[in-house]
Amino acid sequence: MSKLVTELHIIGENGNMFDTDMEYIIPLYQRAYAWEDKQLTQLIEDINDVAEDSNYYIGSLIVSKQFGRYEVVDGQQRLTSLYLLLNCLGIKTKPTLTFACREKSNYTLRNIEELLLENRSKIDMDRIEPGIQRGIRILSHELTKDHFDRESFMEKLAKIIVYRIEVPENTDLNRYYEIMNTRGEQLEQHDILKATLMSYLSDDSEKGLFAKIWDACSDMTGYVQMHFISKNNAVREAIFGSEWNSMPPNSWQKYKKAISGTTQETTGHKICDLIEKNFKVEDDEGYVDGDVRVRFESVIEFPYFLLHTLKVYVSLYGVTHEIATSKIVDELLDDKKLLDAFNRVVSCGITDTGRIADSKEDFARGFIICLLRTRYLFDKYIIKREYANDSADGEWSLKSLYVSGQQSKKKAYYGNSKFTRSGEWKRTNDWRTKTNIMMQSALRVSYTSPKVMHWITKLLIWLSEADCKNIKNDAITKFDKVAENIAIDAVRENFFQVCSNGVYAMGVNTPHIVFNYLDYLLWNDDRNGKKKKYSDFVFEFRNSVEHWYPQNPSEGTFEQWKDGVDQFGNLCIIQRNVNSKFSNMSPEAKKSTFKDMIVKGSIKLRIMSELTEKNGDKPASLYWKERAYKAHEEEMLGHLKKACNIE
Questions:
Q1: CA proximity to 73, closest of 168, 174, 204
Q2: Region at 232 (left for phi over 0; alpha for psi -120 to 50; beta for the rest)
């Protein structure tokens, strides 16, 4: 790690991060302390989420050494909050944090203990800074809640790391601060990781090559090919072929030949570029169907993509932990542990050729190649959001980049990724593309947190294994089945194996993947049939499991259902922003009140609505509760059991 980057533990055996002879000063050009409930409670939650077996990165602190002290350029809100937190925990700190020309702020920091003890007679309340006082009050409240476990919290706090990063000498700090705050540009974990991996390379030209590939991959907008910019597209064609759509090579020497000898413009931005008034980031756009302009949006951000790629690398190279009983990578994809994840692989990883720590240079080369190849596969085979022209309404997309025109007039356009055997009709490919889109979007809306999108990792590993053999033969025609098997495994493990004795009554705890996979099966059966009732169906973020017959009927207007209300047949999944009254209405009232939502909603919900009809003298709600829900449940479970091979 660079000499300008220092790893700081919040607390440790030798004290805390403020036990130093070096003073931190918040310059006048920065705003006053302003963190409130949301940020401070999140800080507490982040610390409580720390695992016992790893350190946890909580942000960076950008400083400039000025006259024997650190002037805080960026990160002062977090730094001040940590100072307050330690004091609220009763941990003694040296008076090493001060605000330039803010006497009230400094007076408040020096009297935290008296404020906590409410010794108002010993302090001048007119000299207290309200923002800092509010922060103390919020933290104190959080730390004194009944469920707060101080011992556990302190153990986790000892795992927390902040990276202190010094800016180079002679930096215009006022201009730097303005850029960081107006443009949102700041040094993140992945920036530190980039510098760390580059430091493993001894040759400057190789470091430059590494940086160019990294910068291209780090821009998650559009397709990675478009981030390699050079005269006459020489670099792009050297890496991806004349059609810009070939798998990048698996040879470091080929990249050196392709990139090192040409003029390459990276997609990264220097501070001198950012300062320019006319600076803007160019949109990465292309065309489909003639004049329709499109742009694409990734389903994950770059730090998470790095974690997926690390798992791909571990799988491809058979990396294991030198301690046989320890995991080389965590199951959870936690962007706050990005540096820790890579450090564990480098420090503790072993392969058939030996310890990675003994060949860091080879690891840096191997990983950057893996990063580019994985990104190419990600762009081509993992769904994204596609936006046409200036529309704000996106749709799920699985497209590849192609090229039209000749030589310097070549332009990118986008068409469906190919899932057919050689010689099959385009119509067949469109059919398979649609199936892949539906299956992946079902997974995407089921797992909304990027920390648990393991389906992406599994698909990328399948695409990458054995030098990407599966995209070079007919196996790619079964890609939708690979994705479907991920859903099947989840439904088996989290639904069928949880529910016992034939009772499927998980209520609102029923996993979303169960509903979404069922909708996929219903959509697919309908598409293969004659009616085509659900051709308009798309997977959306329906994140609320609701009871069709309510748990608590509105104002006692109809009887409560106690013994079967949580059954799967009585459950549906809807968008969270649907009127809250939905939960207490009778089935027939929901059917008539929410027609527009139901007709565009889950297929299971549509079927439930259709089945909500009176039977003879029995009202629709009563008939639903007594008979209709059970028949519906048996039919829906039949689809799931057949697909999951459950007897």
A1: 174
A2: left
